[in-house]
Amino acid sequence: MHRPLLPRYVPAASRGRGVSVSTLHFVGPYEVLSLIGAGGMGEVYKAHDPRLNRTVAIKILPESFARDARRLHRFEQEAQTLAALNHPNIVAVYDVGTHKGKPYLVTEFLTGETLRERLNNGPIPVRKAISYATEIAEGLSAAHSKGIIHRDLKPENIFISAASRTKVLDFGLARVTAGLPQSGDDSATLATTPQTEPGVVMGTAGYMSPEQVRGSPVDHRSDIFSFGAVLYEMITGKRAFHRASSVETMNAILKEEPPEILPERPDIPPAVERVLRHCLEKEPGQRFESARDLAFDLASLSSVSDTQGRQGASASRFNLRKAAALSAVGIAVLVGAFFLGRYLRRPTETRFHRLTFQRGYVYAARFSPDRKTVLYSASWSGSPPELFSTVPGSNDSRALGIQDAQLLAVSSKGELAVLLRPTLNQAGFLQVGTLARVSLSAGTTPREISDSIDAADWSPDGSDVAVLRLDRKTNTDILEYPVGKEIYHSTRPDWLSHVRISPDGKLIALLQHNGANDDRGRILVFDATGAQRYKSDTWAGIAGLAWVSGHKLRFAATLPEFTARQLFEADLNGEQRLVMEVPGELTVQDIAGDRTLLTINDRRIMIQTLSEGKWRDLSWLDRSIFDAISADGMKILFHEGGQGSGALGATYLRGMDGSPPVRLSDGYGIDLSPDQKWALVWVPYVPPQYRLVPTGVGEPVPITTPQISQAFPFGFVRNGAGLMWMGTTAGNLRQIFTTALDGSKPRMVAPPGVVSVVVSRNGKYVIYSTPEYGLQLWDMAENSHTTIQHIEPGDTLLALSDDGRRVWLSRRTGTTSLDVLRVDLPSGGSEVVAQIPLYDLTGVVSLQRMALAPDGKTIVISYVRHISELYLMQASQQ
């Protein structure tokens, strides 16, 4: 997993009222990290508990609300209610307290999404819906057993964690009644609250029970009705009683039945609809007697298939004792069959066959149409990428004579889609070049098709191609199928990769990544009309994608508990599973039956400094990314973004003499202040947090940019009194801003739509790109633009001088060197200031960052090196 160099800022859903996250550093013993959101009952923050070293959520009642006795009573009731519950399907409460006169509640911190966010993608597969519903019912049963009625159950108050466990949230409208059965010695720890006054309507229109709509007294069966409305929406993707207004919606709850679900979802077993109708009875006495009974019925449906459900509709009337007896017999049969099978079935094992043996980087690999030959593109021993073929079982590879090219796809007709003259971005993730077609049988001369292409794949019949195109004018990635027909687009800094068409040609899968220079992302699947058919969870790192069948995909991804990308499988019905772990970082290349092409990659990022003609290695762990050099040239700021640094990364300060580094903070460094007292760091929380971290004694200071969306910083301005950012305001195009050190007082320094390539440290000059005129130098003080003539295709711009006259860039020259040049823009004269590194260019795919020390002689660089091996993985019988 690689951490991004310049993060995308994701603003909180709401900034709330009464509390500023920039000034709220601690609440009691808890360190506040970021604002999560705000609602009518308070503001919620992400925080760190230093005593138990865990992340928590803190709900704070604003001061104005704290003066309202009614709202304060509800806040205290929620705290008491949650404290009395201890169940895996109810959010856990850890602590309560008061901070500067404002009450707060501390709960577990959850990662994932609300059920509402999940439903925005459409109905939930039946098995998954039943699983979620069973857990919700079990949570309600636990609450009801304590005499607690939720009274506001809805998708917004149900959370689906990253581990796919549901949690019932927000008991702010909960009522405790003495009329429900109590269990356990602690049942009396809650004081009984007064009954809601008759005629007062409490709840959310569309999910209230009929008795809530009428303002009548309610009991636990009201929650069962609300549960039915939620289950209906999970299955159909539509609200059960939604009308044009709240009044009409409540009238429908009282008098109408929701539409039948079988026309909407014919795959739903009738037994599921029976449970649903039993929940949505208008009269409480006709509903399930308890949430416990409801959970039991749902659990019995969890393994019911479509056919089983329809055939078993009448069988559901059997006595439960008879069913239990039959289940016991079935279990005995299954156990016997399992042990018999151990003796009759030969076990399956996975075997690996190594296909490449040289030292370098394998970009992509595909099976030939006959599945006997493997085609791949690679760069060996520092040479430019070219195409090769090999046969499993052979140690040799044959060059195809197609150089400076990368393989994208192989058609069923034996035609290749290749990328000519590919250029990589700074992190070495994404290549852009010219799409060309090559016929293996008719020669090896590529025929160019289209420019600015990132990736491509053939349709099953080999007649059409799906492509990912970079539109430089709008700075978007576009999925086209066929070429020229837009299916989907994503605006940078988000980016797309790894497009693959399903074996039946009906679906197109791709990866969408979260931000610039970041391999976090998710799988998206579309049909040919552009309708989204699937969206996976977001993975900490993801690369490689291939179809196993028309509804199943394999990919390589990283979870927080893993150290590198491993092999996973996803079913479009929502199931995901870990297929295999290996000691290395996987990338899925292609699949043919039970055979999978994989690359196992060692990706490292190195830091080196050149002084007086000698190189010194300043790398620390596995992915050392240079951030900044101090004003006196004696120290560097860098961060670790790989396996050795953990899920949050780590930022360090290190002497140029190679002395051991000092760890400053979690997160990824961005810049060092001119006085060397502060490091600008971002921590990949959700949403991300920016901090000023002291290099000496002191506490970190959070930074927020409430007026700038999608903000990511370039660093400190020259005098250290402010920060420079790129972002958007009020829905405009991206532009450049400077702000105060706390992120306030944004000032525009570039017009909307200017996408910068390099900005001078004093903020006076910008090099930006336009589709019409190419690279432009913009003098912001004079508001003048000059076309830059002396940059070659493939050059990577690294730095711009404060007077706007000189630019530093990297340029690949031949097969033995990667040069760093200083170019005088007015004259075009250039000088090589460094070569990286002359002794070994193997696997070096990109130069990430570079800086000159104040003496103008010492240079610091970080660059990416990939060393990979290609394997054929095959399942076989012993």
Structural description of this entry:
The strands form 13 sheets. Strands 17-18-19-20-21-22-23 form a 7-stranded antiparallel sheet, with no helix packed on it. It folds into 5 domains: 1-109, Phosphorylase Kinase, domain 1; 115-313, Transferase(Phosphotransferase), domain 1 (Orthogonal Bundle), CATH 1.10.510.10; 349-603 and 869-877, YVTN repeat-like/Quinoprotein amine dehydrogenase (Methylamine Dehydrogenase, Chain H), CATH 2.130.10.10; 605-692 and 756-864, no CATH class; 704-754, no CATH class. It is globular, with a radius of gyration of 30 Å. The chain is mainly beta and 878 residues long. It contains 11 helices and 56 strands.
What's the level 1 CATH class of the largest domain?
Mainly Beta
Largest sheet: 7 strands, antiparallel
**pLDDT under 50 segments (min length 5)?**
1-23, 178-201, 303-348
Number of contiguous helices: 11
CATH architecture label of the largest domain: 7 Propeller
- Helical content, roughly? 10-25%
Oligomer class: single chain
User: Which structural class should the secondary elements be placed in?
Assistant: mainly beta
| CATH H level, superfamily name of the largest domain | YVTN repeat-like/Quinoprotein amine dehydrogenase
Q: Mean pLDDT, nearest integer?
A: 78
- Share in β-strands: 35-45%
The global form is: globular
Measured between the Cα atoms of the first and last residue, the distance is 35 Å
Q: Rg to the nearest angstrom?
A: 30 Å
Total individual domains: 5
CATH names the topology of the largest domain as: Methylamine Dehydrogenase, Chain H
Overall number of strands: 56
Tell me the strand order in the biggest sheet. Answer: 17-18-19-20-21-22-23
